[in-house]
Design brief:
Layout lengths: L1 H21 L3 H35 L7 H17 L2 H6 L7 H26 L7 H25 L26
Helix pairs in contact: 2-3, 2-5, 2-6, 5-6
């Protein structure tokens, strides 16, 4: 019997080394993920602020879309969208480790991006119809809520303190309207 098991010893050693080497801590995996998504994370945060101000301004006055600053903001949005990437690319993004919390966190990021892109498409497909701006604002709000949940979960799995002193991700009080645009 001992001779039979000795043949498996090298296999067991190799398997143990692979398992130990492949298992990083949650904090290490979260740090790797945060580093790999940092540019997209920053771009989405900036895009949400800018787009919220754009759609809010359009909701108040449809004539705003012909102003130079609105046109420049649309160009900035195109740059943010390019930095964020497509939903397909985000879905194929390799995640470190095999942690369900990290997968869930990434899903919130993707949902936020999806709502933002759908909000933009709604306005564009309607030909910037004033009636569609309320629905676009609602989609923007969902994008923002999911982004905040993403940020909280990312901080949580990275072992960082929560942003608002202990509220569970997704339970924070969130406004219904974007902040007014600064002059």
């Amino acid at each position: 019997m001992h001779r039979f098991l000795s043949g498996f010893r090298s296999l067991l050693v190799i398997l143990a080394v692979v398992v130990v080497a492949g298992c990083g801590s949650k904090e290490e995996d979260a740090a790797k993920y945060a580093k790999s998504i940092s540019d997209r994370h920053e771009a989405l945060a900036e895009a949400l602020v800018l787009y919220g101000n754009m759609v809010n301004a359009f909701h108040k006055d449809a004539a705003v879309i012909d102003r130079d600053d609105y046109i420049a903001a649309e160009e900035d949005m195109a740059g943010y969208v390019a930095r964020i990437g497509s939903l397909h690319d985000l879905g194929k993004m390799p995640l470190p480790g095999n942690d369900e919390d990290l997968r869930s966190t990434h899903d919130y990021f993707m949902i936020s991006v999806s709502y933002l892109y759908e909000s933009q498409a709604l306005l564009e497909d309607s030909g910037y119809d004033q009636g569609s701006s309320a629905m676009a604002l609602g989609m923007w709000e969902e994008a923002r809520k999911n982004f905040l949940t993403f940020a909280e979960f990312l901080n949580q799995i990275a072992g960082k303190p929560t942003l608002d002193g202990g509220t569970a991700p997704g339970d924070a009080i969130i406004s219904e309207m974007p902040a007014p645009a600064t002059p």
